[in-house]
Design a protein that fits this description.
828 residues; Rossmann fold; single chain; six-stranded mixed β-sheet
Length: 828
């Protein structure tokens, strides 16, 4: 492409995305108005209840739950529990929250972009966002990538729902959703042309009749224009409206948005919100029909009970360990088949040296058994193995809050991945347990015939400490045993491979010291176990009644309860009352806001950030958002590692019984601030650059930059950024998915920034889906979208467009629009 053509195309495409947008339905919280969170949750709960009702009908059972807009997570889960085995309230809550938090994030991430908000009459582009996103969701579900599907689903919901608030669909008198917005094969008709006047100025504060009568009579579809930094808009066009929209002060004044009941068309807010609920339900029904009820309930987190996830070293000395992993996993599968505790998913990653993977993820226990039986111990060479590389695959591929078990008798050869593993642990809140055998004796690491004559060094304490650090950060254990006593240690696996598992209290001390700890056991708990690990620990447990139990006595299983919680640190905008999830560590010493969701019939009285290695704690201020969801604000974040602790009262208790829970996963603060753009779709074979910014609050110098994907995709980035004290620098990471990457493949990208001297680091984690679009398809869509907006009315027959491309130069093509009234040819 010559330079002149490149400039012309750049300007052409640039016109699609220049004007900024101001607002939408409030993302998560708004007094008296329906928010994106409520619209999304209502639609999900109704459609999930319908799926469970259909299952019940097929099984000849009654389903008595009324399906309406007043459903709750708890009521739907309870009603569905007879239709689908052992549904976990927490996994359901996590899935729903992931969808509506991804929805809310669009308001910040795409603040200055029109199509995601259907502003500035960007109907065609918005339709593309919705239809391409829906295709990506279905493709991800086909590959069982449910977490990525939830992220993409939430994002497309935002655009779909904004259509009903930002367009005049409601004002035109329509009472059902516009299905064409979700169908790529259906055209959007009767769109306002770029020069068609659509509004008149409001009469003071009264904007109830500011849409022109001819627009209403002819059923012409339009939206408001908006500008955060400019008063400019096409002559005669409606504005979005509101104090942040500068275009609403220019003739015609006022606006037409229905984001809240106080908006300038707020008298139609409830009608717009109800249409948005129905449209969201239609998309969910489309997904359900394209897959099945089982897959749909998995998307909603309702079928997830426990997840069995193993990461196994397959070098020559591991034959006994592999046999034990097979024994314990097969025992769990066989004993729980058909019960409420049957695992809903199986994860397996093998590693050796230099190989690791692939990730095997299946719902089918027989397939998992087959893959486990195919594992053999062989090879190895030198002692260290690719342990962390295998663990990275498992963390990125397993559902959030999974328990992962790592079997090895070797040090990690890829210890440089420690920070990436820490980032994924904090992001996914999964627990990692290491089963280390022969950790203090010589290991035979060569061929089977050499195992009795050749040996290599044992793991050093520093090598073992790497595993301890990762386990402690996740709330897991490092269990060091001989191969002969491994069966005794693996008893932890069936105990923790269960739903409704909660953490009441945990603390780490290094170095160890004599100390007393107090914690609360409430009446909702059953099967409680206390784990005390370390070098020859000595301890005694005392109950309030004076009964004691010493280190020599052991009995019981882990604590299980329906009362649990999950949380996300969020960015909170007090002016608008909105917030979106943070994808990095909070700032050390700074204030922060936590979004917390509680399950199991309880109320929160106190939320603390407890120092992981000391007795210090920071108390938060609790504000109820809705139901069992809360915003918790902290005026200070502890330095280093900390745990989130929740105290409260059981609602169902006959007395005011106290309860206590802690997050198993440690969180950490940082003095580095790192932020990045969000991108949910990338194309195979097309480089995409993620822009990120690093801010320093203390240390000046060269900051080390690292970036990795779980798929091993080609990455290009600068290894360092230079920052001054309280300075800022921008970098980019270019990701290229191989051209043969399957549509729907999920990818996890972690970008890290480390301070000079390695004293501190922070990260951002991005999850995205590889789309089916090619270079030609993508550019074709952008150009045709522009032409559809620029030329009105547009010819219906194939839009009169043709595409001719040069096979040897896929970036060169000719776009022709052949119509006697509109002569146009664009060559790029």
């Amino acid at each position: 492409m010559d330079s002149l053509a490149a400039v012309a195309v750049f300007l052409l495409l640039g016109t699609l995305f220049q004007p900024p947008q101001a607002a939408a339905f409030k993302p998560l919280h708004s007094d008296g108005s329906l928010t994106h969170r409520e619209i999304t949750q209502i639609a999900i709960l109704r459609k999930t209840a319908e799926a469970c009702r259909d299952i019940a009908v097929d099984q000849g059972r009654e389903f008595t739950l009324p399906i309406n807009n007043k459903l709750t997570v708890a009521s739907v889960r309870a009603a569905c529990s007879n239709s689908y085995a052992a549904l976990s309230t927490l996994s359901f809550t996590l899935a729903v929250a992931k969808i509506y938090l991804s929805n809310a994030a669009v308001d910040i991430v795409y603040l200055l972009t029109d199509p995601p908000h259907v502003d500035n009459e960007a109907f065609i582009e918005a339709q593309d966002i919705i239809t391409q996103g829906l295709a990506a969701v279905k493709a991800s579900m086909k590959q069982e990538n449910y977490n990525s599907a939830r992220v993409r689903l939430g994002a497309l919901f935002h655009t779909l729902q904004d259509f009903y608030s930002h367009s005049n669909w409601v004002e035109l008198g329509f009472t059902t959703p516009l299905r064409n917005m979700t169908r790529s094969d259906l055209p959007l008709n009767n769109l306002a042309g770029p020069k068609t006047p659509t509004c008149k100025s409001c009469n003071g504060d009264d904007c109830s009749d500011n849409i022109l009568p001819e627009i209403l009579q002819q059923k012409i579809l339009t939206t408001g224009y908006t500008g955060l930094f400019s008063f400019s808009k096409p002559t005669g066009k409606c504005s979005h409206g509101g104090i942040f929209d500068l275009t609403s002060r220019r003739e015609p004044t006022g606006g037409i948005n229905k984001d809240t009941i106080s908006s300038q068309h707020g008298f139609l807010h409830n009608r717009a919100a109800n249409l948005a609920i129905n449209a969201t339900m239609e998309v969910l029904e489309d997904i359900r029909l394209a897959t099945n009820n089982t897959a749909f309930l998995r998307l909603m987190g309702l079928s997830q009970t426990s997840v069995m996830a193993f990461v196994i070293d397959t070098t020559a000395s591991m034959s006994d360990d592999i046999a034990e992993a097979k024994r314990v996993s097969f025992s769990i599968i066989d004993s729980r088949k058909g019960t409420s505790e049957e695992p809903s998913e199986y994860i397996l990653v093998a590693f050796n040296d230099p190989g690791f993977g692939p990730l095997i993820r299946t719902e089918n226990a027989d397939i998992f058994k087959e893959k486990m039986n195919s594992l053999t111990a062989s090879g190895g060479g030198d002692a260290p193995e690719m342990c962390l590389s295998g663990l990275l695959l498992a963390l990125a591929g397993a559902p959030p809050s999974s328990n992962i078990f790592v079997f090895t008798d070797a040090a990690a050869k890829d210890s440089e991945l420690k920070s990436t593993i820490e980032a994924l642990i904090e992001s996914t809140k999964s627990t990692v347990n290491f089963m280390l055998t022969h950790s203090t004796s010589f290991r035979k690491r060569r061929s089977v015939s050499e195992r009795q004559s050749s040996s290599s060094r044992a793991m050093s304490q520093s090598e073992i400490q790497l595993y301890r650090d990762l386990a402690h950060a996740s709330g897991g254990q490092v269990i060091e045993v001989t191969k002969a006593t491994l069966p005794q240690a693996t008893k932890i696996i069936p105990d923790t491979s269960t739903s409704a598992l909660v953490t009441v209290f945990q603390v780490v001390r290094n170095p160890a010291k004599a100390e007393n700890f107090s914690f609360v056991l409430d009446e909702s708990l059953s099967n409680v176990t206390v784990y005390v690990t370390g070098d020859s620990p000595v301890f005694t447990l005392y109950s309030p009644t004076g009964v004691s139990q010493s280190v020599s006595e052991g009995n019981g299983a882990l604590g299980q309860s329906s009362v649990d919680f999950h949380f996300n640190f969020v960015e909170y905008d007090g002016n608008r009352g909105d917030f979106i999830p943070k994808d990095s560590r909070p700032l050390t010493g700074g204030n922060a806001t936590l979004f917390l969701s509680l399950t199991g019939g309880a109320t929160v009285t106190e939320v603390l950030l407890v120092n992981a290695s000391g007795s210090g704690a920071v108390n938060g201020t609790i504000t109820a958002v809705a139901g069992t969801e809360y915003l918790v604000t902290f005026d200070r974040i502890p330095e280093g590692a900390f745990l989130v602790q929740l105290n409260g009262l059981l609602i169902a208790s006959s007395m005011s019984t106290r309860f206590q829970r802690q997050s198993p996963t440690q969180q950490r603060s940082s003095r580095i601030i790192i932020m990045s753009q969000t991108q949910s779709l990338i194309e195979p074979g097309v480089p995409f650059s993620f822009i990120f910014t690093v801010n320093s609050t203390t240390t000046a110098g060269n900051y080390t930059i690292r970036a990795r994907t779980n798929r091993g995709f080609k990455l290009s980035f600068s290894g360092s950024l230079s920052l001054g004290i309280f300075g800022s620098a921008q970098g980019s990471v270019t990701v290229t998915a191989p051209s043969n990457t399957e549509f729907g493949t999920d990818v996890t990208l972690t970008i890290e920034a480390q301070a000079p001297g390695g004293t501190d680091f922070n990260f951002v984690t991005q999850w995205f889906i590889v789309s089916a679009a090619s270079v030609e398809t993508s550019r074709w869509q952008l150009l045709t979208s522009y032409l559809k907006r620029a030329i009105h009315p547009f010819p219906a027959e194939n839009h009169g467009l043709s595409l001719e491309g040069a096979d040897s130069h896929p970036n060169l093509f000719t776009l022709s629009h052949k119509h006697p009234k509109y002569a146009l040819e664009v060559t790029a």
